Amino acid sequence: MKKRAPLVVANWKLNGGTDLICTSVASFLTKSFKAEIGIAPPYVYISDMVSFLRNSAIMVGSQNVSKFASGAFTGETSAQMLKEVGCGFCLIGHSERRQVFLENDASCHTKIERALTAELMPILCVGENNQQHELGLTQDILYRQLHQALPGLELQGKRLCIAYEPVWAIGTGKAATAEQVQQVHEYIHQELVEILGAEAAGQVQILYGGSVKKDNAAELLAMPNVDGLLVGGASLDPEHFTQICSIANDVAP
Ligand code: PEP
After folding, report:
1. Residue bearing the CA closest to ligand 1, atom 2
2. CB distance 174 to 211 below 8 Å
3. Which single residue of 72, 166, 240, 244 has CA 20 to 30 Å from 37?
4. Catalytic site residue 128?
5. pLDDT, average across residues 151-157
């Protein structure tokens, strides 16, 4: 049993559409969850999702946010806009954003500040790639990502999450073991204490993401430093995702 409700977040990436929204919503609304659930569809579906889920506790969020507040930035969506349409959180620095769209730790820092100002909960994604993993550089990479993105934030009364997503585990079917995840989450917590202080660090939930399925969700959530899950591929199957959420219910207080 956890001290606080685990957070399970679905990242649909560039997938889904009206059909998936309808089946997902139908599946969510038949259950009541003790775990906290979030869902991040593509931007254009956020408003529909928010209106379908308005009578539920399920949070809707975005997969990204602009580092700019407003102005001549074609194609961008600001934190304030996301808040206005009903988002509760936003993913920041997902490895696909870092790899494909060349986002870096400095832009993550600015995006976190924008999100906090707009009262959106930022979920900062961090993690090492396969080569870095093989070379034993996991802690060095996380140290850099955390120490560059997090210092100087005004967190008083705000919520922040970290998602540890080893790149080698994303979409590969090769999840990190529960023991590996526990060890890394302990390290992340230790660095959060250094950067934010013990009190603020104690409030930060650390999620694991990377090939989470209903078959490994329970053992991951059983780890003391795993406060929730970020689910990609398996969240596109509403029944599968709902099962993962039900597993999270079992460890909720
Ligand atoms: C992700 O990309 O955030 C993710 C966790 O993907 P998957 O579950 O498919 O590995």
Report:
1. 232
2. yes
3. 166
4. no
5. 94
